[in-house]
Structures are given as structure tokens and as C-alpha cells.
## 1
Amino acid sequence: MKQLKATRRVLIGAGAAVAVGAAAFGASAFFKDRKPSEFNARLIVGSDTDNSIAVQWEGNGSWYLELRKSGSRDAKRFTPQPDSYTVKGRTYHLQTVRIAGLHPSTTYEYQITGPNDERSGWTAFRTSDLENCRALIFPDSQSNDRYKTWEGVYNGALGRTPDIDFTCNMGDLVDCGAWLDHWDYWFSAVKGGISRIPVAVVMGNHDTYDMDSKTRVAEPVMFLHSFPVPDNGSENFRRWYYTFDSGPVHFIVLNTEWQEADLLRPGLLSEMKTWFRNVASKTDKPWSVVLMHRDVLYYKIKGRKRANETFDEVGKELMPLFDEAGVDLVLTAHLHTYRRRDHIKAFARSEDGPLYNSICLSAFICCMTGVAGNIRYPDFWIDHPLDVKIAPQPETDNYLLLDATGQSLSLKTLLPNGNEIDSVTLTKNT
């Protein structure tokens, strides 16, 4: 067991007390030469889940993507954009095709083709419709069991709820972002779903970690190259944050790792805040949802002397923006615990409107999403005064199901066996 030592410079707020060991899994087979069917093809959300998507696979050479509507024999060929990068002296290759102009509520099929008529076989996916959004939200999948627990949570959720538009991972996908084996196990765990259901990802602090305990933070190249999310227009922080739409929901994916980023190059927070104001003001979607890794609240830890419960740096920096923009829902992760709060406005519980029956657009609900790997901290955090619902203790894994129409947005929090432990529904006044 190789321990990853935490430093105050790296970890912000309540998560500073937590450092999790990463198992030494041996030499990675992640990018070895594979047959076409073993290229670990994955789907990533495009700018709108009803008409765009990105398809990526591992490998190098003269490969192509073929796309057709389900049942059709007419396929369109796409030439991928090659990508290569080097980690720890080794160079890796990826191929990416970005597709736009798809039709809503339509089943498509794709396959990877190559020299000598090699083919991966057809894989189907379906675009979302214009009126609804349904997604599975997964908390930290960070693990030290070769991601077997995460595999069970992910595939169990998909098996119970196959009719979703996308999945979302809320950061800390892996324990150490520079450890290739972790990505190998992570992608192996999700390969049955990610090839047919697009994923949206949030960068967490562990996704930026280096294997060198002295440097601790490195450019998160594996994360950034492995998930070609929609472009944010940034020169310095491309793919660190982004936005996309799904049915009636405008999702804004923020990056809370600005202290990590400052060790590499400064400016993430100020640049992102300016960008947020711009994208938040331009949407015409009924719902606005923020996805980010670190939480807005500051928690005390049992048995340790810490300051009183208050708001974390993330909350102090970003919550005024959420008030200003009229964000409806904020989802966070990081602390490996599920906590739901009430409407919050101006750093306090809001009294605007009946609870959950109507929502004032200047107040938002905040939920910390929990944990979906085997790294758990039961009976660790002292409850915060703004907590309304807490997962049963000792805490196990969980995931969330989001359902939205133009009039309502609901969240169900579920245990790995599908049992519900919490739910909330927001409605719009019409």
C-alpha cells in the first residue's frame, strides 16, 4: 500500500484531513495494442445531448468511425482527430470524433473500422428528447480495490435504470490521476455502459494528483485527454470546466481545484468566474444545475479541534455567483458523505417560497452526493446546521437519479441495491 500524503496546500477545507492510500496494481495494460472490439470506446456528452456527442477510443493508426441510424444500411464515415501525450516517459494515443447535427430521440449505431476490413461491431446509443432529462449522478468512485465496488455501483444502477440520457461522475474518479492502472481499472469497470451511454465528468482533487509525493500535483493529462468534453473557449484551462444542455436543463460543470491549478499556472478561478457569468446569463432552459467537486460548507471532524461549521472557500467564492445567476440546484462531492441542504441564499437558509413546492430563482438547493467507491468515512463528520437530510450511518455507497421536465426537477438518492434514502422535487410556478 502506497500512501498519498495530504498537504494543506493541496487539499482545501474539510477534505484536508483525508488522504487515501492507493494500491500498487502493477504495470498498466491500459494502452497496449488491442483488437478493435477492445479499444474501450466511450461516449462523452456534447454541447446538447439531443444533437451532439463525442466518441473516443484508444489506439493509433488508420482507423475510422462509421455512424448510421439504427436499422439503416447507410453509414457515414468520420475521420477521427488523433491525440497523443506522454506520461512518465510513455506516449499514448487516442482517437476522437465529435458529431453534431443528430436528431433528438433517435437510436444510432457506430462501429470502429480499420485496415484489412477489421471492425469492432455495431454499438447502439440513443439521443435525448427535447422535453425531458434523466441522468444518473455518481459521487466519488475513488477506490483501492481495483474499482470492483465502483463497478458494482455503476452497473447495478444502469441495470435498474437503463433509460437515461447520460451519467455524471462528480470528481475523484480515481485515487491518483497520474497512476495509469487506476484509469485502466476505472474504464474496465464502466466499459459495458460508457460505450452506449455518454458520460459527463467533473474534475476532483485526486484526479490532479501526481505519483511523486514531493510534487503532489501534476497536469491532469489522463483526465483531460480521456474525456473530450465540450470546448469552453479557454487557452489555459481547456476542458477544466464546461457547460452542456440536456432537455430542459442547463448544466454548468465547474472546477473547484484552483489551488491545485495555481501550482501549475495561475488564473483558473478568476477566468472561470467571468466565464460562468457569461454562460449562466445566456441559457433559456427552465432549470440551471451546477456540478462541481468540492462542497460549499465547512465541516468539523469528530475528535479534532477545528473552527466552527461555516462556509468553505469554495462556497465563499462561488455562492454569490449562484445567487446572482438564479441557479436552481448545486451538486457537490468530495467528502464521501451524502448531505442535503435546504434552499440557500446569501449564505443562509432561505425562506423564499414553500419548501420544495415552488422554488425562488434566487435561492438554490445544495446536495453533497456521497460516495460510490470503497473509500468511506463513516461517523467522521460533525453534522452541519444547514444539513437537512443525512444518509444512514455507518454510511455506505449511493448514487442519485435526476429527472427533469419543464415544470419539475426531482432527485432520488439510492443505495446500491436500489432502495431510496432521500428524495426532493422542485417545481416551477407557471
## 2
Amino acid sequence: MRLHRLEVTAFGPFPETVEVDLDALSDAGLFLLTGPTGAGKTSVLDAVCFALYGDVPGDRGSAKRLRADQAAPGVRPRVELELSVAGRRLRLVRTPAWEREKLRGTGTTTEQASVVLAERLPDGEWRTLSTRLDETGHLVGDLLGMTLTQFTQVAMLPQGRFQAFLRAKSEDRHKLLEWSNRTIGGSDPEYQDDGTGDDHGATYEAAMIEMAMYAHELTDRKRAEPADDLWTVLTTATVTLDDGTVTELTDLERDLFFTLLLVAGNETTRNAVSLGIMGFMDHPDQWERVTGGAGMDEAAVDEVLRYTSPVNYFRRTATEDTELGGQLIRAGDKVTLWYASGNRDEAVYEDPHRLDLTRTGNHHLAFGGGGAHFCLGASLARLELKVIFEALAARMPDIVATGPADRLRMSLVNGIKHLPVEFSPSEPVLTA
């Protein structure tokens, strides 16, 4: 879903007509609402929610009381929203029920809520789809793949709800994993299908929104309660620009950095573990080496990274004309770098399809191959793999697969969703 234009009249804190041309602000379709408490940020979001569903989250009052108290007498409250969803350009015009003075006599009368849902045709004309409240509600719900309740939970979570949310640590971990799966899942139905059979991208967008909201609230919490952790550092960090100006990261930069840390910081490593276990099962002599006491030295970790290639490829843009392998690449051309192919290059590696923990001269590309785009978490990833595989060797030396792996349907990430295994249980480990 992408928003194009929002216009409100006599709605919330806006007594007059206010129009926001979102297309004029950015081509990216991503916006950050910022401002002091009471500036109207929530009211803008309420207007979007009301245009879509004819209601706003319950914490912010009944839709029957959405008319601006400061609006001139007789001015009808109105919200108009243009958006694109599932390849269709739509316009919603809604008015809430409101009380107005009678034209004759004294007292007031109730104007009933109304709606007009229209779709823009290829010739630019607008065709009315519905003027019925119930029918429009069904059409919008089907297009977005979310009910009002689901939408408000994903995109309209009321202020103050995060406190209870953030205290549920186990639930947080579950949600973080879920968001990561939905973000990186690509076209995999298990992670992207919301059950409606509609656009799989809807759940991806929802996951991105949820992660950004979580990161924003986490920043606020760390400002109020600093701790000895990475996010406190990022919250308080300053950046010196080329002109000498010292500034902080913007809220948007922090939100995007959170997404980067969450997705890149777990998807690659956990898939390297899953793929590494599969590699050891296909090469039992190498697993015996680990369980026999050799452990995972630097060469062994690098070999697992080469063999698994958790990231299949990345795309870069050529900055100048060049030639590679007899192929002319012009400035501006998009070049796809297939790390999985490079890591199995028979011209570089002897027996490249074999997992060999004693392999030397292993200049694999699992972290991007060096340069400005080299993975900033490479050292941490290496340590994680060493610790995990040595722990598995100590606790589950006889681990074996009992069925085929269920692979992730995603071209970017070489991922494993499910791998059934069995092993002999060891003595439980008690932790404080």
C-alpha cells in the first residue's frame, strides 16, 4: 500500500481544510511524522485509518466525535485519501456522523456517515465502486488483506501500548524472529501469505512498519533509561559530517539501522548454522573431526562460510566503464555478484563442492569480498559459528537428519526453514 494524497476538513484538531501531497514529498513512499506532543501526528494517522475503515482505534474515541470542535458552524467533517494498493489507484472520501444545527427551528440533527470509494481508470477518469458503508468496508478489507483490528495493531498501535509490549521479553523475541522471517521471506508462502490469497507484499510491508515502530519506541526508552548496550550507544551517538557539523542520527536512520541489525544480524548466521549442519551430515568425516576434539578453528569456520554461502548474491551499480571477463560493463549498469558461484569456483578451489575444514588459502566471499561493503558483523558471525558448532558437538555429537530440508523460497538468501533431526539427549544443563 502506498499513500498519495490526504485531505482533511473539520477533522480532529484541523478546523479548516488541510491537504498533504505525499507524492510531492518523496518518490520513495516512506515518511516520518515528527513533532512535539499535541502537534497532530496521531490525528494524521487517525485520518488515514478513518478513510480506510470508517473508524479509529478505540483508545482515541468514537468516530462520531471526530469533528473538530473549532470548525465553523455547518462545516461538514470530511477525509479524502488517495492510495495505491495491489496495482490499483483508489480514492476514499468519508464523513463521520456529526451533529449540526437544524435549518429550521432550534436544536440539532444528526448527519449520517457517508463514503464514496472510487477507482482511477487508465484514461484518468474516476469510477465509483461503492457508496455503501458495509460494501466499502468489505472491499477495503479484501484489498488490504487486513481487518480494522489488524490494521490498527500493525500500523496504528496507540501511544502507551508499547510499555506493556516491551516488557514481554519472550514475546519480543518471538516477534523479532517473525518480523525477520516475513521481511526476508520473499515470495515464500509460509512467511508472506496472510491467509487472504492476496498480495504477498502486504505482510512484508506490515513487518517493516512494525519493526520501525518497535525501534522508535526502543529509542525513546533508551533515552529515558540508558543502559550498557548497543542501542543506547546508537541513541546517543553523534556523527561528524564532512563540513565539520556534529549531529545525531535521525529517527529514520535509527529505524532503518534497527531493521539492518535485526535481519542481517540473524538471518545469515542462523542459516549458516543450518546449512553447516547439513554439510556436516553430508561429510560425516568432517563432523567427526569437530566432535573428536579438533573443534572449530579459524580455518574450519571460514570453510563452513565458503561452503554454505548464506547470501547468494548482491547487486551493485558500476560507477565507471570497465571490462570483466571480456564483457563490457558501462557506468550505471547493474551487476549481480553471485557469491555462491564464486565460493564454488573450480578455478580457485580444489574439489569446491566438498566441505574440508583443513582447507587453506580460503578467500571466500561470504562477507561480501572486502572493500567498502564488507560485512561489519564478520567478526561476530565467526565467533557465533565457532561457539554454536562446538556446543552442538559437545551436546549433540550424534545428530543426524531424519528427513529432507525445507528450503526458503527466496533468491537472495540461501535459507533453511525446517530440518528434522534426531539425537541422543544429554544431561540437562542448569543455568542461574
## 3
Amino acid sequence: MHDIRKDKEEMRRIKSVQVRHQYTLLQCFYWVSSCAIMGFATVFLQYKGLSNTLVGMSVGGAAFISIWMQPFLAGLVGKVRGLSLKKMILLIILAVTSGYLVLGTVPLPKMAIVGLYLVLNTLYNSITPLITAMGMEYMNQGYEVNFCISRGLGSVSYAVSAVVLGQLVEHFFPGILTFVFAGMELLLFAVVVSMQEPESSAVKEEQEPSSSVIEILKGNRPLLLFVAGFGICYMTSSILGTYMINIVRELGGTDGTFGIAAFFCAASEMPAMFLCNYLIRKVSCKKLLKLSSVFFVLRPLVIFLAPNLAVAFLGFALQSLSFGIFTPVSVFFINQELKEKDRVVGQTIFGMVTVGVGSCVGNLAGGFLMDRIGLKTTLGLCVIFAAVGFLITQRVKVEDAGPRRRILQIEDNRAENKDHQRERGKDEG
């Protein structure tokens, strides 16, 4: 019986390692694809003949639709029997890949390009909270998935691909982005197919239905304030990201330089993400989120004041302490604050408001303002709005109980899961 238990524990360990590696590959391939379809969106759409305003309509419109699309898709996973996170991700991958191939290879009128990209970007944005929720499900079930490292390696992949794609675009043509995206999506699809379905990602008979978005926000004031504050912060951040190519060109750079700038932004996230687990054990998620909001202000300020590319690159690198802290910590914050039945919707709310509302307003306003009042004035407004978002996040009260309230819940779940597996092994033995 002892040997049987040892064999079962070893099999469980091997399975846990497999799940961890698969989830890391999922993050890596997704963010390489994301770099092609979203990171170089302005380069690609300008190549297709769109103005800054039309680029803003395309990217911002997608973000606007995501406001409703993301919670709708997350709600389907929580309500439709048999529809799981895995199946939803696979369906979106197939739809977006097919559409993007059409967009990149078939001559289309400008407004058709705007409409098609809007739909594709909307769907692809919707994958992010689903992937995050899948990682949390694995961790809650006791698998040794390290979300921070997996997401950090996703940023590494985005950073490296930004440099490579920048060089490919400069030496060939922006249309090559279509084929890079399609190739990475095939790899992403293969990884997702091979992955084990999280046990609770599909509806169960006894599962309590998830709460509505309004119910969740009304019942959690810190979440409401963070959602509002970071929605505004992300609005300014999206302007800097989408129109980074304009900033680089204004300071004397090229498309290749833009790739390097995108690398700096993504690569700078790695230290914060790799240290995420350690930081959360030392400082509460609320304090870390409030800290990250400081750098959401400093980043556009440095870029606004930058006299040359070198200083601008320093501003780009502040993404480490803004977005780099916000991204993983917000995930753990949701996992700690909300009930199990509401976590998928909760992750979606953060994505809905930041990537959805924030990006929508930022991209639409950014493109409109740049075509009318110029780049410099637009960057100055970014600083002001980021400061407003910062002030809202600072209204969140941090309890005296300290940072560890429910912070080790995942680890407790892991331990309970392992104990359960041992008991099952004993019974079967």
C-alpha cells in the first residue's frame, strides 16, 4: 500500500509539473500573438491606410464592445452546462485566426477594415481574463502553477517578439504580421488542446450561480474604487501604448526603434512579476495596487517631459512598477476578495473596465486629440487624467489586520488537495 501511495503522489507531482509547463506555454504563445495583433496595431492599420482617428476607432471601438462582451462570455462559462474555459478559448482562437487572415490578405475598404479589426480585437481581448481565470482554477485545485512567473514569462515573450517583429516590419512590410499571428495561433491552439480541463471551469449541478457585475461591485467598495481608479489610469496607459509609434517617430526613431521601445516596456514588467509572490507575502495586495497607481502617473509624466528617446525609454521602463505590479497583484486581489462562484466574473470586471472602458476612451480620445491638438498636448492631458485615477485608488482603506487576510488561501487549497489525494490513495490501497 505504501508503494501505491508513493506512486500516486509521484503521478500527482508529475501531473502538476505538466500543468505548470503547459500554462506557461499558454501565456507565452498568447502574448506573442497579442504583440502581433495589438502591440503593432497602429503600425498595421496605418499600413492599411487608416488615419490616427480611424486607428482610434478600431482599437477603441473594440475596447468599447469588450465592456459587454467580456462579462457576457465569462457569464456563459458560469451558466451553460458543458461550456468550459478551455472550450471558450479554443472557439475564440479559431474565430480570430480566420478573421485576421482575411484582414491581412484580402483588399478591403477602410471602414470594412475598421469593422473587422474591431470584432477581432474584441474577441481577442476577451481571452485574457479567461486565461487568468484558468490559472487561478489550477492553483485553487492544488496544482503548483506559479501565475506570476508564467505571466512574467509571457511578458518576456512579448518583449522579445516586439524586437523581432519590429525588425521584420522594417525589413519587409507590415503585412507580415498577419502570418506571424496565424503561426503563433496554431501553436497556441495545440497547447490549449493538450491541457487538462480545470475541474470547476464548467457548470456543475450543485454550483451556485455567479453574482451579477453590479452585485459584485456594490458588495465590495475596495474593488469598486480600484476598478474606477485603474480604469482611468489604463485610459492614459492605452494612449501611450497604442500611439507609442507616434512618440518614437516624434523623437527621431523608426519602426525598428519602436520594436525596441515595445521591448523595453514588456521586459521591464519581468522583475515585478517574478517577485510578485514574495511581495504579496510582505505587503497587502491593496497597498501594492495603491503603489502601482503612483507609477501610472510618473510614467506619462516622464514621457511628456522627455527631450529625447533615451529619456522616453526611461518612461517606457516605468511600466515595470505600474502595469508590472498591477497585472499580477490585481489577479490575486480578486481571488482573495471574492467568493469562488464570482471569481471568473470578478477577473472579467477588472479586464472589462481597464482593457474595456479604459482602452475605449483612451484610444478614441487619443486618436482624435492627436489629429487636432498634437502629440505634446495629448501627452500632457494623459498626466492629468492619470493623476485623477491615482487619487481615486488612494481612497481605498487598508485594514489593520494586515496583508495576509486570505492571502495564503491558495496554498491552503493546495495542501488540502494533497491531503485529499493521500487519503484517496490510502482508501484505494
## 4
Amino acid sequence: MKLKKLIIAGSIAATALMTTATYATDNIKVGVLHSLSGTMAISETTLKDTVLMMIEEQNSQGGLLGKKLEAVVVDPASNWPLFAEKGRELLANEKVDVIFGSWTSVSRKSVLPVLEELNGLMFYPVQYEGEESSKNVFYTGAAPNQQDIPAVNYLMDDMDTERWVLLGTDYVYPRTTNKILEAYLLENGVKAEDIMVNYTPFGHSDWQNIVADVKKFGSTGKKTAVISTVNGDANIPFYKELGNQGVLAEDIPVIAFSVGEEELSGFDTKPLVGHLAAWNYFQSVESDENEAFIASWKKYIGDDNRVTNDPMEATYIGFKMWVKAVEKAGTTDVNAVEQAMIGVAVPNLTGGTAVMNANHHLSKPVFIGEIQEDGQFEVVWSTPDTVIGDAWSDFLPSSKNLVSDWTAPIKCGNFDVKTAKCSGQDF
């Protein structure tokens, strides 16, 4: 039998080295497509470890369909074309039954054609810009209406914000998200001159001038806030520069869509107290499910100081749903599992229930949290109930008439309710 190399580079000492193992031919293979090196490793390595933890837990309960789950881990190394290459390796060579992976939308867009060509199934666990619905992807992170729009509403209604700074990393998620937000702001009476937009490359480290520009933009007497779609390790120098220049939350609050507990764990957060983040989960949310998850994570990782975060919960939910769908379908066949997934419900970690909808998006609660001195978030606002993720934005002319529904008779990710036609294009 061919030996397979399982690369598990990360935080656990026992899995830090490359190991070689021989597995039974009838194992159910789970692909893990996360960057373990490069600018996104700060975020993605944790999700690799989360999937491995879930696999270990499932195997301890007898596996799935009477078989053991086998992790196949690859490292696309924050190199976006490599996500397509490594995705093809997982599907064509390793014959994995499912993939958990990607963080950035550019990495998801890279592997998406491969998933559709080879009929793979991937769970994408991070907030994204919407404007997509593929038969081969389940989106367990937040769509814009589950994060971005509620955050803007909070800043408008609760903090009387009048001027808006949109800071983002230069790729598809921030640009599309900000396009949606600009349209939403203008629709709500914000003047164009009260919106500032700035993009920086991945891994950007020199924030001095940008933060100075933000301070100047916010010095007109109008309440100003920053919406940050900065991603990866660029967040560390960005937040440090906020502290260096004395940008306090009470003066110019920053609300982030890509900063969670993991990103804040590496430096002193005292100067950042009061700045905000919008997610569907925080470690600080109290529930029996969350308490058990945190305990399991710390035991698995062997570090009581390691934190949990939103994409971990999205990974957890996706994995649990996939297991239920496979059991329901009685097979790992992608077509059968895809249909079985629709309507599946599992407990989330905040005390409610996550449901997979016909558009391959979850129903999720929305939380806004303030950064505390210990790097955790205090929830200051939440939706009263779960919100159904919307694949297509209501605020863009190109998509406001589109819906996604992967059930019969529509079975389309891009259905125009005006023409009653499916374009045949899923993204």
C-alpha cells in the first residue's frame, strides 16, 4: 500500500513534524486545505488544528459509517494559485471525500473551479463578500448581511457615526464588501465625501501614514469610525500603530471583520480597549456548548492560554453538519451529501441552533464585541435571533434580483426572480 505523508505543522508538539503513516484503504478521507506558512498562517493553522481535533473526536466515537476518518493535510502556503493545485491533489490523487479549507476569498476563488470540475465538496469557514453560491461549497462563515450590514447599522444607530473609513487588504473580499457597504451608506444618506477608502497588500507593515490619514479624516467634528477588512498578520502592525498614535475607541472606533481572539493574542491589547469586532461567535459568550468546546480545545492543543474564535466555530458547525449529512445519506457521495446537508441543524456554540439553508448558507446570530485588556471581547450588541445568510447582496444592482436555491426544481446558485431564469453560472 502506498505510503501517505501527513503534514501537520502547527501548534501541537506531537504533530509538529512530518510523519508517515499507512491507513486502511476504506478510510474516509478528510482533506485539510489551510495555509500553514506565509502571511495567513497566523489565522489558518488554528483551523487545521480544529479539523484534526474534530476528526480525533469523531474517531473516538466509532468513526463514521463504520469507518475511521483520515486527515490529509496540505499547505498552500498563503500562495493563492497553490490552493487550486493542492485542491486538485486532494481530490484527484488523494481521493478525499470532503475538504475543509481556505480563509481568504481569493484562495476560495482559486480552488472553486477545481471543486466544480472534479465534483468535490468544500466547507468554507470564514466571513466573505457574498456574490457566490456553488453546488460544491457550503459557506459556514458570515455573508455580508450577517456581519457587515449589522455592524454599519450599529455604528449608525448606537454610535451616531457620520464619517466612514473603509480599510482593507487588497483582494476580492474587502473590495466587494466595501462596494456593498458604500452602496448601503449612500442609500442611507451618507455623502460620498464622508467615505474614505484605502487598500493595502497582504502582509502590509507600514501603517504610520495611513493611521495619520485616518486621524486627519476624523478631525472634522463629525463622528468617524473605521471599518476594517484588513486580513492576516497585517493586523498586528495596524493595531500597534493605532496604539502608537493614540487612536482611542471613544474618538475613532475601529470595527473589524477579520480580527478575532487569535489575531489579538500576540500583543498588548490595552491601547485597543473599546475597539470593536463583528462576528457570529466570541469565546466570551457563555453557554454549556461553548464551555465544553473551549475545554476540549485547550486539552487537545495542550495549552491553557490558546483561544477560540469565530472561524473555529464555523469549522466545528460545518464538520458536525457534514457528519450528520453523511449519516443521513448513508454515503460520502458528494451529490447525495450535498442534498442531505440542506435542512441539517446542529447546536452552535453560543447556545442556539445553526441550520443549513437551501442556498448553502447558515442561519447564524450576529454579535458585536468590544476588545478587553485580556484580548477577549465583551458582547455589546447581538441580534435577537439567527439571521439567514444571503448569497447575493440586496444593495448591488447586479445581484439584487438573484437568489440561490439548490433544491428542486430550481437547483441553481444564480436564479433571477425577475426573469425566472438560472444563468447557469454559480459565481
